[in-house]
Design brief:
By secondary structure, the chain is an alpha/beta fold. The protein contains 10 helices and 16 strands.
């Protein structure tokens, strides 16, 4: 089945589509222009779709016979970042930017949908193209799963990708097991007793308590978690105090716990509360602690991983498939799919130093080498067909 040349010929259309998405970024669940563009493309290709979850969309392509089902997932939302690139496809929405490559992800998914729809007589089963909102915030995947995106027909495997500016274009990164960390956002309110700055003995200094708590929290990772198992506690925001000459009566800490092991996730969130409460009690203050469950880990299924490794090496050549040893401590809402369905999630190289495409994701100068678009389509199509026809 020779679809490679067809995808190569599709490259100009992919570039145009990606740039249209890049010029019109939208945030969170508010994606009317983005969804409209996707619907126009699917209608043109005569691919059926339906809205699902909250601002989600799923398209279906049925092969020649009944069979298994594979899901190809893409995210759709952008970030609250100002685009500072000097290019024709710069964001036209002030303070909004596709700074994480979701414009590329959507383009690849639509390219794969087009090619697979043209090849539907060549495979059995069903392909679901899943368009997820709010990946950068609360994760639209949960609502889509609750609304049945993995049902009727039941999805047997999922595939997802993320462009990666550290991997050269033409190469990919794959990893067995845990790929992304889990997250636990937290908010801590520490209350003391205000007083004049010249009379600290009459107050209970919430800033001093908060300072000691922050330092002690770092020992949870360095002294209570195995050095071979990565974990991170980040206090990213501190608010407290009213004046230079006053003892603060309240401080608010906000941040994130990230782990890659479920047992350590439970342990560190429990000990986090113990440490805060212990220091606050010793100092005579009070506190409120809120630790929420964020995204769980993304975990690659071994069988699907090896299937994809074989498929990708056939398409790219063995030297262009890089085996990654360590998980990233970032998070991904694809995790909700990987908890339900055997999955593979990989990194698609988009770096090109000769073109000065080197800036990190989530930055105002982020860009991709658009040659990665057709590569992504080839990999998604090959994996879908290999899985369905196996």
């Amino acid at each position: 089945m020779d679809f490679i040349n067809n995808i190569n010929n599709l490259q100009p259309e992919l570039i145009e589509l990606r740039r249209e998405f890049h010029k019109s970024p939208e945030l969170d669940f508010e994606l009317p222009k983005t969804i409209s563009k996707i619907k126009v493309f699917l209608d043109k290709e005569n691919i059926s779709y339906k809205e699902i979850g909250r601002s989600g969309l799923v398209a279906e392509i049925k092969g020649k016979n009944e069979g298994k089902t594979i899901g190809i997932r893409t995210d759709m939302d952008a970030l609250s970042i100002t685009d500072k690139k000097n290019c024709t496809y710069k964001s036209q929405s002030i303070g909004k930017m596709h700074a994480c490559g979701h414009d590329a992800h959507m383009t690849i998914a639509l390219g794969a949908a087009k090619v697979l729809n043209d090849l539907k007589e060549e495979f059995s089963g069903t392909v679901k193209i899943i368009f997820e909102p709010a990946e950068e915030t609360s994760g639209g995947s949960k609502a889509m799963i609750d609304d049945g995106v993995l049902d009727n027909p039941n999805v047997d495997a999922m595939i997802g990708l993320h462009v990666n500016e550290e991997i050269p274009c033409g190469k990919i990164g794959i990893k067995r097991g845990v790929v992304y960390a889990s997250s636990n956002p937290f908010k801590v309110i520490i209350r003391g007793k205000g007083s004049h700055g010249a009379s600290p003995h009459r107050g209970i200094d919430a800033i001093v308590i908060a300072s000691e708590a922050i330092l002690m929290l770092q020992t949870l990772v360095s002294r209570e978690i195995s050095p071979t198992s990565p974990a991170v506690i980040t206090v990213g925001k501190i608010n407290g105090g009213m004046a230079q000459n006053a003892i603060a009566d309240e401080v608010v800490l906000e941040g994130m716990i990230r782990t890659v092991n479920p047992d350590e996730r439970e342990y560190i969130t429990r000990r986090f509360k113990n440490v805060i409460e212990g220091i606050v009690n010793i100092k005579g203050g009070e506190c409120e602690i809120e630790v929420n469950d964020g995204y769980p880990c993304v975990i690659n299924d071994d069988d699907i991983y090896y299937e994809f490794e074989k498929s990708s090496k056939r398409i790219l050549g063995e030297k262009n498939v890089k085996i990654i040893d360590n998980p990233t401590m970032g998070v991904e809402s694809f995790s909700y799919f990987s908890r339900k369905v055997p999955s593979i999630f990989y990194w698609l190289g988009c770096r090109n130093e000769e073109k000065n495409i080197v800036n990190p994701a989530h930055s105002s100068l982020f860009d991709i080498d658009e040659e990665c678009l057709s590569i992504g389509v080839k990999l998604q199509v090959a994996m879908a067909i290999d899985f369905l026809n196996k």
